[in-house]
Amino acid sequence: DTFEVLLKQAENHTNVFLRRSYRSVADEAAGPVGELFTAVGLFLMGSELSVEESVQRFFDALFPPVYGRLVRPALGDLSPSFAECVRSSRRDLRPFGATPGILAEQIVQSGVAGKLFLQALHLGLEVINTTDHLQMSRECRRAILKMQYCPFCQVQTNTSGLISSTPIRSTSTSEGKALLFPFFPQGLTQSKPCMGYCLNVMRGCLASMAEIDTHWREFVHSLEGLSARMHGPQDLEQVLLGAHTLLRDAIGHAQRNAARLSAQVQKLCGSLSGRSAQAVSPQQGSSRESIPLKTLVRGSGDSLAIKRRDFLNSLRPCRTHYGGLADHLCMSELASGDGLSCWNGIDAVKRYLKRAKRDGSIKPCIIISVEK
């Protein structure tokens, strides 16, 4: 969707430029402009079509109206046969200078970078979705259940000495002997797991997640490096929205070389015939109806570069997500705070004496969508 919106904006921007700067050729150029950006869209979506050939075909189609209305403005409409001769001579005459090759190269370079970035985002999403449904072993499920819920367990003892799990109740016999009593010391039901106990359990159960950590860090680092290179000629947004500047240079080059081009075209195609002498006023439109185009207005927040920057800024705290997931869960949700009594798996204590398996830290991980 992001590429589609960008391509529509770039096509609209190019047509606006032609209407404002070269109105006499704008209508005839609208079709080739649309075909060019359609071809670029197919390339970005994975098609193996040649961007170089698509750009060359665009300038082939642009040459006849530019020649008849800007290079030799007195000619106006060209006869179909003469227009075809002009079109087919464009690659030999090079009326637009080096611009076609420059535009094609920039689209390819920036398009490859854009596609790689998009593919990387899809890969990252696949990793997140895959690890979002972690299947734990039976031992881990029991350990986590014990860690989280055993402080809330109570037991009931009947006259035969049997024990069963039930919530505590204030009930007594007629002789005043209590039938129910807490299985753990008073206040244990308010205790959370000790930090070290929680870390040992969660780090052990999430060891498979920690194995992803190195690859995930490399992925984030590579994504940052790719984004850093996406500027200037390698920034797809800049290239497509700035295509009209190269188009202006190309048409300007043809106008500056009008005398040479006129002589070369006449030598190749002969004298103009048919409707050759019919000049057309710039105010005359084509028979194709079109919606009036408006100037493209983009807020600074709409820029893909800014969205990319915001996304990466939100991704950086997640660089250690898989390696520090157990630590984050214990520190933010599961474990007891410092100085508070805590559950060590057996009793309520003030301090957990076993050493945690390894140190680690994690910051909250909240990723902003790049397609926002």
TrEMBL record:
Cellular component terms (Gene Ontology): cell surface; extracellular region; plasma membrane; side of membrane
Keyword entries, A-Z: Cell membrane, Glycoprotein, GPI-anchor, Heparan sulfate, Lipoprotein, Membrane, Proteoglycan, Signal
Main location: membrane
Membrane topology value: Lipid-anchor; GPI-anchor
Subcellular location(s) per record: Cell membrane
Pfam families referenced in this protein's UniProt entry, alphabetically: Glypican
Keyword flag Signal: yes
GO biological process, one term: regulation of protein localization to membrane
Classification via PANTHER family: GLYPICAN (PTHR10822), GLYPICAN-5 (PTHR10822:SF12)
Family named by the database record: Belongs to the glypican family.
Free-text function comment from the UniProt entry: Cell surface proteoglycan.
Protein name: (spotted green pufferfish) hypothetical protein
